Every structure is written in structure tokens, then in C-alpha cells.
Amino acid sequence: MAITNYKGLMVPTLADATAITTSTTTQELDPAGAMVVNLTNSGGTDLASLPDPQPYHSKTLDSNNRNRTPKVIPGQLVKLVLVSDSGGTLAISYKNVEGTAKTATTADADDTLLLVATDLGYAILENTGFTIS
């Protein structure tokens, strides 16, 4: 895995990113395969959400009652980048470090949000262009 130094933190390069095109239908972003999520909005108001972090040792079952690895674990870095703006806005819902529901909104390409997962939600480490409400 290639690593880039980002504001003093080491994160994977874009070659290790997951690309997701959001749509007006709410979808859950899945950063399990990569710590960088490259987002493309489709126009209008696009909606997405981040999964609640789960301890790695927690037992999570799928629909067939099989164990599965949590999508995000406490301590994991998640970098969200709007790489292509097709018009409109992109809204991402998540819980903050106190477990309170928050929404991060952006409308401009290259806006970036770097988060670290905690036991209750996410802490913002760096915000370039997102509005938090």
C-alpha cells in the first residue's frame, strides 16, 4: 500500500481509494476496503451516510448469521474527497464523538474531510470546504 503524508498524518494514496458515485437515494459509504473514499455527486442533492464505528472484536452477523468484519473500527482514519462535482450538493450524515447526528455538506470539487473513528462516532481532523451542521 502506498502512503501519503497528509497534514502530518499518514494515509493511503489515491491508488488505494474506493470510488463511489452518490445518488439522490441515500446510501451507506463503505470505507472498509480503503481509508480514502473518492466521491462523485450526480447532481441535485445527493445523500450518503457513514456507518457507526464498531469495536473489531464485536460480533456482527450478516443476514445468514455469519460473522463479518465491522466496516469501520475505532482509530480508523476515513478521508472523504469530492473528486468530481456534477452540480448540486453532497450531504453525508454521521455521528460525532458524542454520538450526536451531524451532516457534512459540500458542493465543490476537491473539498476534503478527514475523520478518525471513535467509540461513538467520528472526530474531524481536517476540513477543507465541508459545512458541518
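Above is the first protein from milestone M3; the second protein from the same milestone is given next.
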Amino acid sequence: MSKYILEFEKGGSFEVELLENAAPDTVKAFKDALPIEGRCLQARFAGEEFFFNADINIKEENRVKPYHGAISFNCDPEWKAVCVYYGSTIEMGEDEYFNLFAEVKEDLDKLNDVGVRIWTQGEEKVVFKQK
């Protein structure tokens, strides 16, 4: 079984589990596009979330409420963003849920540290790749 990771420029690497049963089309699109490099930014109004853009064309597949460690894809053509939720304070309505396609299962405290770093220190490069 292949392994996937998110690796951050200023430190932090996280194994990611792809949720093929929950979002098979989104997972396939991501596998086909790997590696993906982006610039993480804090989401302004969503709480403990950072995001990075990924030029992937996929339609809405599922709309699942995010949680600490969840990774979703906003397939709105204006955004095309990977959304990573690094804590449990998530401020969004149901109409703002996106394609849940992956999750970080371990080192959630460390993921929170990376999220706080992006929030307080600004944009940071990330690579989403196969290990």
C-alpha cells in the first residue's frame, strides 16, 4: 500500500491516509497530480484551517463536516484549494463543507503547531507527495 505525506518547509511531515471509499474521484485526481507543491495560508474566517491551492479539476463529490486532522478539497473553480484542519475550532456552515478525501491520523498536536505557525508567521511552502 502506498504512503502519502504532507511535508512543510519550516518543519513537520505528516503521513496522510487517503479516503478512497469516501471520495474515490477526488482521491484519484490527487494521486494523478502528485507531487503537488503549494503555499499554505491561514483561512481568514474558518477557524483552525490552513489551505493551499492545487490546480485539480474535480466536481463536488461529498460534503462532510471537517474535524481536527481532516483534509478536504474546495473544488470551486475560483479556489481549487486543499483545506487542512489543524484544530477543533472550525467556523463554517454546512454549505461550506468540501470534498473530504484524506486525513492526518497521528501527530495531531504537531499538526496544530504547524497550523499555529502558519497563522502567526505567515505563508509557508508545502509538498503533498507519495512517500
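Note on the second protein: The radius of gyration is 13 Å.
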